[in-house]
Amino acid sequence: MNNHVGKTIEFYVLISIFKVYKRLPCRYCDVDSSISSQMGEPSIFDRMMSHLRATSKYYTGYPKDLGPSRLVHFTSEREFVQLLHEGYPVVVAFTIRGNLTKHLDKVLEEAAVAFYPNVKFMRVECPKYPGFCMTRQKNEYPFIEIFHSPEQAANQGRADPSVMKYSVKVLPFNYDQSLYGFREFFKRHGIKSSGPN
Hints:
Blueprint: H1 3-22, H2 30-38, H3 44-55, E1 71-73, H4 77-85, E2 90-95, H5 102-114, E3 120-125, H6 130-134, E4 143-152, E5 166-172, H7 179-188
Parallel strand pairs: 1-3, 2-3
Antiparallel strand pairs: 2-4, 4-5
Helix pairs in contact: 1-3
């Protein structure tokens, strides 16, 4: 069943529930529902709607309860390196705060929850940390890169022995900026994004 048909069916179900609610005797109508909502008890209609949202296979347009945020906000390069040392791929979104990135923020929050703990998601606000963003040598924002497979690099020449050098693979993300886009990207590049099934 395609998404359009699912939304149409859901719409008709909501209309029929609303019609049934309006035909209930007066003691269950507006006065009673306003009193019960003031007392902290949800009305019959609210209970039916929350049940429908909870059991519906299709997204109803209401905010999803994602639980605690799994999106890591960039604060320093040291923290970023520590995150890489955990061994998981890190999806980094280089952004500028604005109306155009609100959708991306929601997608990142949802993806961070969906792929936790196998993939970490990080957001960098480039105006706050210009040095880190400039090292990526891009001038169009927002953009996303995936850092994975960190390995200790061989010592090169006269490098300070107390400094550890690492090499990491970086992939530019050019798929659809959605949960589906991330899933397809991970499949295509062989990045493990889910636990054992």
